[in-house]
Design a protein that fits this description.
By secondary structure, this protein is mainly β. It contains no helices and seven strands. Strands 2, 3, 4, 6 and 7 form a five-stranded mixed β-sheet that branches. Strands 1-5 form a two-stranded antiparallel sheet. The two termini are about 15 Å apart.
């Protein structure tokens, strides 16, 4: 689940999507990492600050030969552990 903060007066809950290139890379410990980014195509310049929670399906990130990966959410200052 991701909490979004954004400006404007209308919810962009449905338009916020998680993009991923489909690529994995490994850290020095051999653990897999994926880079993802949240994106919304709605632009609302009103001054209201909105907070919204959304659950994103991240099952596409799973690898057959692993049961753990790190998610690098671009713009977030730490890696997110994902065990499946």
């Amino acid at each position: 689940m991701v909490t979004n903060w954004y400006g404007g007066g209308e919810s962009n809950r449905e338009s916020t999507v998680l993009f991923w290139t489909g690529d994995y890379y490994k850290n020095s410990k051999g653990e897999y990492i994926v880079d993802v980014i949240l994106h919304s195509d709605i632009v609302d310049i009103r001054r209201a600050l909105m907070t919204d929670k959304k659950i994103h399906d991240i099952s596409d990130l799973q690898l057959e030969n692993a049961n753990f990966i790190w998610i690098n959410l671009i713009g977030y200052n730490q890696l997110v552990p994902y065990t499946y």
